[in-house]
Amino acid sequence: MFGCTPVIFPTEAKEGWDYWSQATLTMEPYMKDVHFFRQFNVAWIFSWEYRLQHFLAHSCPLSLVRVHKIKWWPEFKARLCGKENVEYFCKHGKRKFTLHNLYLLKTKNSSSYAIKEGIKNGEKFFIFHKN
Questions:
Q1: Domain for residue 12, yes or no?
Q2: Predicted model pTM
Q3: Cβ atoms within 10 A of the Cβ of 36, count?
Q4: Residue range(s) defining the domain that contains residue 66
Q5: Closest of 1, 37, 30 to residue 16, by C-alpha
Q6: Measured between alpha carbons, how far apart are the two ends of the chain, in Å?
Q7: What is the pLDDT of residues 10-21, one digit of tens each?
Q8: Contacts of 42 (CB under 8 A, 6+ apart)
Q9: Considering its fold, how many domains does the chain have in total?
Q10: CA-based nearest residue to 77, from 127, 10, 32
């Protein structure tokens, strides 16, 4: 498969993937992957490098071979494709958390916060108060 693969998911994203896999049993495996990555905007890093190696018979000279790699992008908020968001999507048809409402995300270890929303000079802002 070209692109992301669930093998590289961190634990939180893996839990979301496992829930998605069980909830979409009728979908083809490839389409299941594609829809998951599209619905939850999963980000990954794709890179390659070149190596000289024996690709053909050993009597031939070395070949220049391109080696592809993918890895998880650590700056991506894994909760966007975590179990809580995936479960909500499967039940309601929309995501609970998106890139546009990240202020709703609380880290698992954080205390509870009160969020005050306001508008100043025509721009929306949010103030977080620790409870």
A1: yes
A2: 0.63
A3: 22
A4: 6-97
A5: 37
A6: 46
A7: 888 999 999 999
A8: 4, 13, 36, 76, 80, 81
A9: 1
A10: 10
